[in-house]
Amino acid sequence: MRAVVQRVREASVSVADDVVGTVRSGVVVLLGIAEDDTPDASERLAGKVARLRIFENEQGRFDRSLLDVDGAALVVSQFTLIADTHKGNRPSFTGAAVPAQAEPLYERFCDELAALGVPVERGVFGARMALSLVNDGPVTIVLDG
Questions:
Q1: Among 5, 82, 95, 96, which is most exposed with the fewest C-beta within 10 angstroms?
Q2: H-only helix segments in 9-98
Q3: How many CB atoms lie within 10 A of CB 76?
Q4: Residue 78 catalytic?
Q5: Is 38 a catalytic residue?
Q6: What is the pLDDT of residues 80-107, one digit of tens each?
Q7: Residue 123, helix vs strand vs coil
Q8: By C-alpha distance, which of 134, 4, 15 is closest to 78?
């Protein structure tokens, strides 16, 4: 499981020109699920995202988490994060979980994040989406879990 976490001032995701999720201050999580991922991985990664200290304290140091700043998360599934680019110029997605396996793990990740106290907005699993965001910093962290 791989997550790209971007600290944002605001973000939204649309499907067919309809906004389906929006957050103000918080994070966007692009979530890729591999074929060997488990429900436990969803739980661990959700905890890591909730507690990741990427927000600044009064001294300007990264010392606060999403929970500390009452931030929200916009979670968007993105199987392309599991791409293998070791051979040639065309990415291979054979390591990505099939939708029937990936969707429950995506939902579990979102549910676990919400259970930790983070307000969660979601994209639409499997849909073609347009993501709009204002990256704050910019701060972008890649987490493997």
A1: 95
A2: 39-51
A3: 22
A4: yes
A5: no
A6: 999 999 998 999 999 999 999 999 999 9
A7: coil
A8: 4
